[in-house]
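Hi Q.,

Before the meeting this afternoon, I wanted you to have the WQD prediction in hand. No need to reply - just skim if you have a minute. The sequence and ligand are here:
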Amino acid sequence: MKLLITGGLGYIGSHVVLQAQRAGHEVVVVDDLSTGLTSRVDCQVVDVDLASEKALDVLHNLMNEHHFEAVIHLAARKQVGQSVEQPERYFKDNIGGLANLLLAMKEAGIKKLVFSSSAATYGIPEVELVPEDYPGIPINPYGQTKLIGEWMVSNASIWGLKGLNLRYFNVAGCEIPALADTAELNLIPIAIAAIKRGQSPKVFGVDYPTIDGSCVRDYVHVGDLANAHLLAVAYLEQSRQEHATFNVGTGIGASVLEVLAEIRVASGLDFELDMHPRRPGDPPKLIADTSRIENILSFKARHDLKEIVKSAWDASS
Ligand code: WQD
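Predicted structure with the ligand bound:
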């Protein structure tokens, strides 16, 4: 199948590109190179910001040149804190980019889309495992842009789009060191970078109502997440589509202290912890109910936390 992958030069996108190529798909990437690296992929790359004025023309020409059967749309801004400070930028880039993509797909008659969404759409859920139908309310502009994106995808069914939203939980690890997460924006890369600098990793809060007082998250290996995209594309090929939204997680929670303990094991280093008060806006616990993606897409995460942390540590060495 010929696939257009937006944001394919990013940490997650490049894993999707790699797996798509390994599965025999032909891939073209669209990316604005703002955070992506061309060294991460081996395919045609079109440098364009999807939210820019020229995006529609560029997409129009690209979609005429290639006959894409499906699009996997990952290109987006994804920093929660930055989205609070610059909400307009997040709405312009994430919503504007998706709007242009949908307009171009409609014109070109491309009717299959996998949309990169987020567990940030749930806000602060008050359940042990969050199912897709949980009536969550995002608590930051980033999560809002993802929920609005899901609505845009669903509204496009009016012209025949078959869209599928994948709600990522906490993505980490890497398949090969060249594709590692080089940004220090999430717990595992932040903690590893701190340890490498000889500093103590920070823990934001140990007074939550959780197993050890620190926040619990569902860490999913980026290789497993990439595989979910290919299962999603295959699902869109089927004539009958029961669901449009799927959690991508493991269904297993790990606390911040448990993650840091795994980093001790992977690194062989016995570092101190730097205890801080709670970080505002952190839900105590966010774990996916994975029954839908397991039952419908036959998805099952193959990597556990140990492998996630080890791959991240090894790639940083
Ligand atoms: C995890 C836990 C922190 C850094 C974010 C987005 C979410 C999704 C994934 C994509 C929290 C704690 C962190 C540190 C710490 N993104 N922490 N010390 O906030 O769960 O999720 O990324 O869609 O939308 O919100 O991820 O990695 O920032 O934090 O103690 O130095 O680690 O407080 O409890 P988060 P995170």
